[in-house]
Amino acid sequence: MKHTKSEQAAIEANQYIVGGVNSPSRSYKGVGGGTPITMAYGDGCYLYDVDGNKYIDYLAAFGPIITGFNHPHIVAAIKKAAETGVLYGTPTAYENKFAKMLTDAIPSMDKVRFTNSGTEAVMTTVRVARAYTNRDLIVKFSGAYHGHFDLVLVEAGSGPSTLGASDSAGVTNSTAQEVITVPFNQVAPFQAVMEKWGSKVAGVLVEPIIGNFGMVPPEPGFLEAINEIAHAHGALVIYDEVITNFRFRYGAAQDMLGVIPDLTAFGKSIGGGLPIGAYGGPKHIMDTVAPLGPAYQAGTMAGNPLSMQAGIACLEVLQEPGIYERMADFARQLKDALLEAGETNGIPTVVNQIGGSLTVYFSDHPIKEYEDAKNTDSEMFGRFFHLMLEEGINLAPSKFEAWFLTIMHTQQDIDETIAVIHRVFEKLAQ
Ligand SMILES: Cc1ncc(COP(=O)(O)O)c(C=O)c1O
Ligand SMILES: NCC(=O)CCC(=O)O
């Protein structure tokens, strides 16, 4: 594969854009370096770079591209939206329609508010929880990533940990002191924290299925215990479903898991690839938000007609029967191939697969919490990533991220990927 034009584009990018990327997750710092490929266009589940190379894509733009890069139904909706005015600064019927679709799909939510990103959505759930409870402290789980606002850039997974700094400079000590971090999948440390600080805790922020130190499911009973303990102390439970919403089923992961939070933040897959976030919950909590209540949240672009119409179209596509089963089947095939290739080549490999998502870890121990994920072979992952890329498979450039299936992947794409996996593991073993 030639990357001459990508290399040139990266030189230019570095001249004008910090680090050559508009989000640190896109750099190759976490995979031993290298120049991020500059993509030219996407089609279905394929990306084509500026040098004309084709990739089967499992990055899915870090999650949102669940319907592929250019689904005709979503493209038509975006075209129509563009032709009829992209932003009005007034209510639109599209917001109502999309809000109804979401509240219909997610029983824990009577009311919703749209934002432009997952970060904004989570940030506001925290503010609402504080306003509702009249308390300050937040508890979160180490290695979970909740966006890039100050409070949650403490022991964050995903991009921050990929770059070797799970705490960000620029976050004040006083902010960092407002958040208590405990390990995921362990009830006792959470319980101890709540016994000590519970009367001051406004909310417990949870990725119900972790997506940011790879995909990590909750242990049986863990989420139930979090809910019970949090509520016993008068704290709200906030689910960050920015990755998990509409990823495993038509709706939220909470209904698959059977544990219901007080507030939920959404993003990524609900927007058909356009900028989006949303948060919601029962009426009595959501009515804390302005203009009804005292918690302020706003946005010039919030609920914009482009994102709303793309989101509606995306949810319409996701109602197609059988798509989630097919994505899960493909992910299972990839998992089996990765484990088999690891076994055959003597490379300790663990795969966490949940529905149409998976993470491969080079490790001889199961991955249940952040320390487990940190303690995996980063160098091996870096080599794996680059070898896969060279063979035309585009993955997230970090051992802390996931592969995402889309409804556009076919059995042929999976077969091709499996063949690549076997070739790559042979090279890894050399
Ligand atoms: C669980 C989770 N919450 C929040 C965010 C932040 O969303 P955004 O990047 O849209 O601001 C992300 C990912 O970026 C995420 O994975
Ligand atoms: N799982 C973490 C992300 O999706 C982050 C994407 C970004 O910030 O670019």
From TrEMBL:
Q: Which reaction does it catalyse?
A: (S)-4-amino-5-oxopentanoate = 5-aminolevulinate
- Gene Ontology molecular functions: glutamate-1-semialdehyde 2,1-aminomutase activity; pyridoxal phosphate binding; transaminase activity
Question: Which protein is depicted?
Answer: Glutamate-1-semialdehyde 2,1-aminomutase
User: Which cellular compartments is it found in?
Assistant: Cytoplasm
Q: Which GO terms describe its cellular component?
A: cytoplasm
Q: How does it assemble?
A: Homodimer.
This protein's record includes keyword Cytoplasm: yes
Spans through the membrane: none
The processes (GO biological process) annotated in the record are: protoporphyrinogen IX biosynthetic process
Q: Which PANTHER family match?
A: GLUTAMATE-1-SEMIALDEHYDE 2,1-AMINOMUTASE (PTHR43713), GLUTAMATE-1-SEMIALDEHYDE 2,1-AMINOMUTASE 2 (PTHR43713:SF1)
Keywords on record: Cytoplasm, Isomerase, Porphyrin biosynthesis, Pyridoxal phosphate
What EC number(s) does its UniProt record assign? Answer: 5.4.3.8
Q: Which organism is it from?
A: Isobaculum melis
Q: HAMAP family attached here?
A: HemL_aminotrans_3 (MF_00375)
Q: Which cofactor does it need?
A: pyridoxal 5'-phosphate
State the family named in the UniProt similarity comment for this chain. Belongs to the class-III pyridoxal-phosphate-dependent aminotransferase family. HemL subfamily.
What gene is this protein translated from? hemL
Q: Which residues carry this modification: N6-(pyridoxal phosphate)lysine?
A: 268
Q: In which pathway does it act?
A: Porphyrin-containing compound metabolism; protoporphyrin-IX biosynthesis; 5-aminolevulinate from L-glutamyl-tRNA(Glu): step 2/2
Coiled-coil segments, which residues? Answer: none
